[in-house]
Backbone:
């Protein structure tokens, strides 16, 4: 029970002093003090490690990708008994939450990136980086096949085969076009630095095109019609940034454009920002209306030609309408990368849409492969699947019934192994499983409770409804990376002293505590120095103060002092000189 | 004589107090107080000006290009009686002397550009900008034909035809490949912002490629062999910047590369920087040797394949040798753009290599077309061509001989119309033409000199040897731009009160003084915080102090306070954090 109490005390303090929450966020620089850890097998042998390059005693860890998850793993890895190979087509880490700012020049692309070699340079761990892209994962032989996209004439050797003892897959996701015709060809995406740079050039190009002589008003309006598809945080932030860019900077230089420019935000559901609190959604929708951003909800895109975008209303009999555009930015959701799809087929996950891992981030069916970040989801174990095993383990005297005492002994292990149990109790305002049993078994006196398997099953039957997939955010990926690094750091120690919960379907304990996500809040910048923030404990803040909170959090979360200084100076430049509109 | 005296006094002050020169340079923010002006005809009528957009009474000036010459013209134009159309494929002005710094990330590309719309925004002159490229100049009908390269579907209207009353051609030059096979396909150039960005990415790519596994030492050396062709200021500065980038920043992140990297500078003549003082050349060559930059002079490039560069020695029987490379930067010289070549054919200059203008920057043979900057040269009038007309004009009493009095009356006009006369006198340390006549006519008493045409011819026969083409530098282009703007500003005033020299082959005076270039000095940054500076009066400074002079001059010359602040903060960033090596 200690844990629940701590949580409640924390939660109360938080609610009573919202400013404390602010402080907490501001000073939480890294993914932050997780108290959950994981198990990992250590039976990987040494295969085909090149002895000339690497100490043969060291285990080789191959990390694919240099995004949030991979970089967080590398930053937190401190056990020098590994030989680490990082393979990624990008030799830098990009602070993606600032990508929408890059599209409009509020922040320069180079200010939000840090070379991965710089990040790992001063570590006590051997880390080598190769700029290449993995195109095949051979789990059976513990090899990954990579290809370098760098120019040059080393064609004969462009394929690189790397052996691993442990593989960490953190390749992220791709933008999802949902196979809608014309999306891939005609839309801009917003996942990579290059995407943001391209969008920036295209915005300026549109304004230049609209300034050419001999255009009709209609053509000018068409060129200056910017469409954003997807009302999630990225799409909303981009639309808001674009609106600021246009009204604060571009109209000064392109006075004629003022009347013609139009921004449309398309969203298939009824509201934008629907993962946020309703107050935030309402505020955002009102603000966009005031700003003149054309909000079209309940409309699905069905086709995009090079000139027009066709939408179909979700309700009202599915009325189809078409509008011409100058630029479309597609920001609807993510999909699985081809290399992961192939890998899933090989390991028997071919019928799934996303790569599944267990709660320790191990890919299901592959002992020495871990997957984190947007490329995987944690396939949480259901209580109902294990209910019999749990009952057997708890019922130490094999009496066929559980007493309160027996129950309390396994309680914390159950809550740790199946976090949905804790969430369920919290949502029902119960303090312990005993309450739950009491609740389901009527008015029996607490001391005398003794339940059989069927009653136990009934009591826990609703628990699994609390299970939710984690959102595909930078925050989750970063926490997973640092969690996994921590497991790797203490691999041997925890081998001897396992710290995880009881194995209900086996002997002994799990080596590590399972991964537990700690939500630190989320921002939705709405333009005009207004930001909505939703912090833990349903604390919602909207307005200028949240904008400053946003500035502080993002500045503090940046990966290095260099990027921190650059981003802050970029903000300063923007305040003083505005955003640049050169076509480069 | 007044003018010579001023010059000499200035020159003496300068030599006695070199620090004064420094101050002068530091505080000379713009192209600087020229005292020479030009004539321009004002007979252009109004053709096909679109009356809905433009006040029909205003004369339409079309400016092609937004480089040094065009932008300097626009910045200095202040007469609101013109309607100005600027047409250029780049919607910004780039401070090109800092391009070599951009190649290595010492300065960010965006810091050295300023949108042309921003530059002309607050002017009292109507200036419109169109992002398009001129592909045909029709001097007969006073029209230019342009094409927009902006994407989009306005194909049917991509061709834009613009009428002009005055045309200002300032499209600059292209890089000259001298038709050497493989240069266009395999080399990087260094003329545009995009070139510098590409070079930067390629440098980092080369280092990443060289870090891939399974490469032989030989292949690694080949990939890290950077070749710079051309020992002029740009090539030398790039080689020096690259050396600094490698030794100060890249070797920290790519420790294995240290031994393999090699920089080679190829120059066809015997020395690099041969337009500079010999002391500077010697210092630069020594410094490069110390730095380990491989200097290969007297070697012409004859072929460049995708892997190797073939050179031929100019002396020693033309020995041919071949070396593999990772990247080649081509920085040898400039050539005429195709649109100007076509234009030259149409106006009868087809047999020339460069477009010729007169001393007032008017294209020869076209009254209302001006050409400035790198796309044209001033075809200076020879004294010998006009010697008879000069004699006739001076000999007012038609006596067939010139007296001292007659002579002194036309003296300043001769010096102004034919600047080579002044240079000749200066080089011979003579104070006036009278000295020259004395010199050539022996010991005749000054007062009694009276020369006939033949004697006069003889005295001036060596004068034309002083004629030199102006260098293709930003300094010349900027001075020409501001000179021409000044002429346009005072067009009407000077129509009534011509201020130019006597017309020797006609009646009256020229409307404006001819363009006169004022050399303010030149820098050659040599890396490692060492710069060579050659200032007027043969004042040479080499070392750290010149580097600071360089910083101050370049900072002060930047086009706006925004770019000034950005470049200075970029320098600061570099000092603190080093240069970035992300592959973006």
Residues:
């Amino acid at each position: 029970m200690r844990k629940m109490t701590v949580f409640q005390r924390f939660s109360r303090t938080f609610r009573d002093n919202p400013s404390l929450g602010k402080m907490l966020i501001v000073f939480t620089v890294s993914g932050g003090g997780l108290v959950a850890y994981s198990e990992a097998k250590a039976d990987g042998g040494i295969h085909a490690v090149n002895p000339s390059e690497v100490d043969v005693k060291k285990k080789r860890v191959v990390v694919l990708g240099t995004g949030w998850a991979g970089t967080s793993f590398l930053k937190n890895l401190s056990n020098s008994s590994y030989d680490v190979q990082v393979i990624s087509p990008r030799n830098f880490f990009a602070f993606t939450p600032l990508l929408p700012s890059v599209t409009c020049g509020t922040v320069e692309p180079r200010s939000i990136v840090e070379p991965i070699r710089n990040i790992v340079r001063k570590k006590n761990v051997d880390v080598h980086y190769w700029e290449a892209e993995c195109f095949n994962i051979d789990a059976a032989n513990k090899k990954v096949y990579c290809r370098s996209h760098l120019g040059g004439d080393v064609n004969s050797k462009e394929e690189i085969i790397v052996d691993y003892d442990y593989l960490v897959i953190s390749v992220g996701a791709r933008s999802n076009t949902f196979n809608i015709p014309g999306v891939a060809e005609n839309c801009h995406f917003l996942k990579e630095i290059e995407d943001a740079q391209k969008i920036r050039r295209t915005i300026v190009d549109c304004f230049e095109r609209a300034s050419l002589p001999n255009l009709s008003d209609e053509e000018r309006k068409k060129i200056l019609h910017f469409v954003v598809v997807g009302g999630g945080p990225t799409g909303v932030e981009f639309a808001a940034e674009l609106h600021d860019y246009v009204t604060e900077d571009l109209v000064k230089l392109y006075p004629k454009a003022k009347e013609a420019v139009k921004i449309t935000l398309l969203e298939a559901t009824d509201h934008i920002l629907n993962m946020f609190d309703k107050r935030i959604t309402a505020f955002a929708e009102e603000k966009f209306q005031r700003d003149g951003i054309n909000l079209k909800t309940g409309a699905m895109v069905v086709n995009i030609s090079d000139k027009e975008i066709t939408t179909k209303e979700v309700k009202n009999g599915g009325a189809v309408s078409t509008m011409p555009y100058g630029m479309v930015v597609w920001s609807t959701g993510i999909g699985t990368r081809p290399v992961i799809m192939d890998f899933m087929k090989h390991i028997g996950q071919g019928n799934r849409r996303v790569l599944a891992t267990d709660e320790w981030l191990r890919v299901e069916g592959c002992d020495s492969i871990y997957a984190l970040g947007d490329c995987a989801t944690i396939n949480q174990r259901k209580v109902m699947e294990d209910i019999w095993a749990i009952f057997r383990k708890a019922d130490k005297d094999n009496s066929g019934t559980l007493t309160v005492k027996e129950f309390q002994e396994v309680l914390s292990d159950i809550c740790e192994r199946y976090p949905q149990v804790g969430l369920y109790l919290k949502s029902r305002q119960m303090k312990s499983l005993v309450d739950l049993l009491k609740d389901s078994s009527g008015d029996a006196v607490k001391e005398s409770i003794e339940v059989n398997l069927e009653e136990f099953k009934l009591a826990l039957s609703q628990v699994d409804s609390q299970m939710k997939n984690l959102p595909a955010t930078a925050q989750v990926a970063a926490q997973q990376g640092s969690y996994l690094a921590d497991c790797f750091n203490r691999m041997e120690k925890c081998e001897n002293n396992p710290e995880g919960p009881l194995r209900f379907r086996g002997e002994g304990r799990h080596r590590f505590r399972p991964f537990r996500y700690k939500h630190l809040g989320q921002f939705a910048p709405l333009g005009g120095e207004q930001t909505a923030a939703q912090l833990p404990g349903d604390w919602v803040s909207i307005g200028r103060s949240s904008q400053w909170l946003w500035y502080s959090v993002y500045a503090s979360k940046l990966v290095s002092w260099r990027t921190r200084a650059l981003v802050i100076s970029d903000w300063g430049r923007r305040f003083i000189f505005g955003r640049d509109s050169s076509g480069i």
